[in-house]
TrEMBL record, chains A, B:
Residues 2-62 form the HTH tetR-type domain. It comes from Prauserella isguenensis. The keyword Zinc does not apply. Residues 25-44 bind DNA. Pfam families: TetR_C_13_2, TetR_N. PANTHER family: HTH-TYPE TRANSCRIPTIONAL REGULATOR LMRA (PTHR47506:SF3), TRANSCRIPTIONAL REGULATORY PROTEIN (PTHR47506). One of its GO terms (molecular function) is DNA binding. This is AcrR family transcriptional regulator. Transmembrane segments: none annotated. Keywords: DNA-binding, Transcription, Transcription regulation.
Amino acid sequence: MASTRERIVTATAELFRRNGYTGTGLKQIVGRAEAPFGSLYHFFPGGKKQLGAEVIREAGLPYAALFDIYIASADDLVAGIEQAFAGAGETLVETDYADACPIATVALEVASTDDGLRRATAEVFEAWLATGTEACSTFGLSREAARALAIATVTSLEGAFVLSRSLRSTEPLDAAGATVAARARELLSTSAGSARHPRG
Amino acid sequence: MASTRERIVTATAELFRRNGYTGTGLKQIVGRAEAPFGSLYHFFPGGKKQLGAEVIREAGLPYAALFDIYIASADDLVAGIEQAFAGAGETLVETDYADACPIATVALEVASTDDGLRRATAEVFEAWLATGTEACSTFGLSREAARALAIATVTSLEGAFVLSRSLRSTEPLDAAGATVAARARELLSTSAGSARHPRG
């Protein structure tokens, strides 16, 4: 069975994803985690803010791996991008439009209200962009072009999640995927080499 | 001076934008609006939910006009798109990364928790897409291509706001603008006519 600390982090991440930071109460967290109230302050003496920052990092950072799964391992950059957006659409439908980005709601909530939590979201986004730049670089793009494409991928996914969840439709995700694919084609055509570099 | 109802709506819109739906309390609203507490239930007998839905619509719908200001009136579709993203970046910097989309935070918060409020956000997004499709159509794109580009514009702006506010940088907005511009060039090149249609 998961440790008390792990159960608290997992419960908080689930509640943040659905209710946001402000909408998640400490009583709700310990209830869902089946943990005594005191254990929360034992593991997170800084209370909700400290727990929030750690949950943002622990829930957010692993998502960088999606760049490796969908893009770095694809034979074709454009096809890899299209598959990443299609995969995100399938997850949204399967979860009844609930599961999208683990940190976007919190990121918008805290952007202007809590600088410590904002920094935690910034760390996660920068980690994603670093992994995404690496993944896109393997297709012969310059670092600058690879970073531009990584940013395009993350921003388009995040914005498409906002619209797709609101409209309960994958149309925004589909349009966003086609948009990033067009940018990838443009960047590949102006880049030195458009062929996949051998790896490993 | 604005009517009591107007002051309540304006105060709520400002609080939603900065603190989100859950983080905005009724006492805060009447305090900022300098309105007696009872007036809130006089104008919005359904309480916070009714007020929330009306504020989402009243704050969100006017933003459709940005498609007319930046895109429908541009001589060149790609330049119009680039100017729209540059303008959004200037607003973000001027407001210390606080003012971005009037409804995105609320849209993410309520997407899975309140279907009435979710529908209000969906109405606003659909209204933007309708105006955006109209604006993009004036450049000779098919309805389908024009709608795809309108969706790309809104999703890319929304996602770029998430990252730009978190990172306190306009880099995501710049990358998103270049991405939508690439999609516009692609759609124009495959469309029947790429020249601007005369209007009026």
